[in-house]
Amino acid sequence: MIYKLTNVTLDRVPKGKENEGQVYVHADVVNPNDLFDGPSRQAIFDEALIRKFQEFFSVTENGTSPTNMPIPEELLVFKGGRYEQFVFPETMVMLNEDGTLRRNPRSGNLYRRDGITILCKFTVDNETGERRYAHGWDPISRGTRIMNSMFAPLSKFDTSTVAPPQLINDKQTLEADYSTIPGTPPPCA
Question: Each residue of 53-74: pLDDT tens digit?
Answer without folding.
Answer: 999 999 889 888 888 999 999 8
